[in-house]
Amino acid sequence: MAWQDRLKQAAYVSPDGTRFPFLYENVSRTFDRKTSGFEFPDADGTYVQDTGTSSRKYPLRIFLSGDDYDIEATNFEEALAQRGVGRLEHPLYGTIDVVPFGTISRKDNLKTAANQAVIELVFWETIGLIYPSEQADPSSSVLQSIDEFNEAISEEFSETIDLDSAVQRATLKDSYAALKNQMTSTLQRIADAQDSVRIRFNSINDSIDQGIDILIADPLTLGFQTTLLLQTPSRSLVEITARLDAYVSLTQSVISGDGAVSEPTLDSEATNQFRTRDLYASTYLTGVVVSSINNQFMTKNEALSAADLLLDQFNQVTAWRDANFEALGEVDTGGSYQKLQASVATAAGFLVDISFTLKQERRFILQEPHTIIDLCAQLYGSVDDKLDFFINSNNFTGSEIIELPAGREIVYYV
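Now predict its structure.
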């Protein structure tokens, strides 16, 4: 395969999910090394501090042409002016989360090229993490974006599933059932821990089972019911680690291992299978989001670890989706992705924000033996409401419950 064969269609997906394909000429990208040089008066040479790299910038000259080029160019301009993170489907460098940066120029050569507009701009890659922290209620913003995601992915599922034949409907039913059975075996125990969650989870689960033949023929309703089912256990009062572990395990079961990337088929079976898996994998990620905001974190490390886990899972799901779209020769319209990204980014920003208000970890080495009760009282000023937390955060063993030996590393929070 030559380099020409590896080029892809160029497009920009705006924050509202609208996709704009475009033509282009030469391409390039740049990035900065974040370094600082320090000169010392009594030493030869220079100390260079290396703190990594900046995100990459992608300057492009974009061409829009045709009978309706003026309308297309105006719509494209409006998309570039939208606030938020978009996606650049670069013909050579892959798919990147970007924000249009700096001056954006449009030129209409009405005399020399009357049916063509030339737009020049720079797309700057962004991590998309920090959203405005002054929101009145970040949790409500996250839940609203989850609702929007549910609608978007249900619509995508409905629009892309092919159910023209009885064989396709039967195959979809089998694929869906396998994923749902795996999900139930993992999330049922989480749901069962709280009566209200268990009742809602079982009610949705039973309604899908009883009406599966009708729902297969109505993928929009099936998709929406599935999102509600998968997200319900995330609201349980089960310890946060158990909820996150369950959702991460289920996500990995979909996106990892043999068969995770679909092989193209002559019919629509591969596409149907991928879209069903995407419905589950992307919704599992929203389970991580809802679990994270539906929790009272005790320490700064806990909140930051949850944010890191959320962003890592999002990156993995995104890479898996991109690999499947490429393998199947399909294009991601970006609708559900934009909503998923918004919920992940808002939740991660919220977790980072609250981490500054939480207790920070401290460590030291015991110089002499102590009892747990005495040391807990010494560090926290109280035993009644801190002892269990002190034991759990240090993973004390049975013998240490009696006496902590000298040389033992102790963790506490202030």
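Confidence is low (pLDDT under 50) at residues 130-135.
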